[in-house]
Amino acid sequence: MYRNKKKNSAGRIILAAVAAVGLTLATFGSQAHAFVFSSGDTVLAIWGNSTEALFNLSTANGGAAGSNPFGASTQTLNVQAALTAAQAGAGAIPVHVSIFSGITNDFLSASGTGTTGPGLSDPTLLWNAMAQWGPGSTFTGNTIAASNANSFTSRMNNNPSLLAGSFAVATFGGLDQLVNQFQYTAANPDGLQIGQFLLNSSTGILAYGQNVAPVPLPAAVVLFGTGLVGLIGMARRKVASISKAA
User: Fold this and answer.
1) φ, ψ of residue 100 in degrees (nearest 5)
2) Ranges of each domain in the chain
3) Is residue 110 within 8 Å of 100, Cβ to Cβ?
4) Residues near 152 by Cβ (< 8 Å), separated by ≥ 6?
5) pLDDT tens by residue, the chain, 246 residues
6) pTM (2 decimals)?
7) Is the separation of the CB atoms in 16 and 76 below 8 Å?
């Protein structure tokens, strides 16, 4: 009886440790913010299925409204929960990833997989779409039905790949793909590369900046995982010693 109690206790240690790391990882992947954007903000859209995910990159990591998130240092944003929801939505195509911004008669930015910017046809189409969308963009969480009037697809006049028809070629990338971000102004009508981004399909972490390097797991997760391995090893040795004593 005494030995059985010791075995059960060691088993509970292992289960508790596994549950704890699961809770920690879930916390890293949680998204509690509401989506809202205004003129000049940079928006991330994960789209292609019946559920879309939207994030304001300008303010996501404490930046000011309207700020350029593509700084010299690579930043990260965990969008795993929203990505999972977007991937689970009904649809015949894999999810796409677009980042865009703009201020009427000033500038706009768009994504492209090439070394040169996607060909710009009519910037007013995107400017008009964003001006009408911005005031009504707020919704709880970061996911929305593609059929909703305030979704990315709907607000891009059901032409999200060309950003409401402003571009002649596609302005999106895919998961696990390094995508370039281009800004268009009167001085740079063909687009000037201002940054890069990559959305990791396994971790749900978006990395973005002027030059994006591979992004490791958050340090807290690595340290916790190392401690978990040690804890499980101790528990197993204890179980083994109890079994030998029996």
Assistant:
1) -150, 165
2) 31-215, 217-246
3) yes
4) 43, 45, 47, 52, 54, 98, 146, 160
5) 545 544 455 455 444 443 443 434 344 444 446 899 999 999 999 999 999 999 999 999 999 999 999 999 999 999 999 999 999 987 767 899 999 999 999 999 999 999 999 999 999 999 999 999 988 888 989 999 999 999 999 999 999 999 999 999 999 999 999 999 999 999 999 999 999 999 999 999 999 999 997 555 555 545 555 555 565 666 566 645 555 555
6) 0.76
7) no
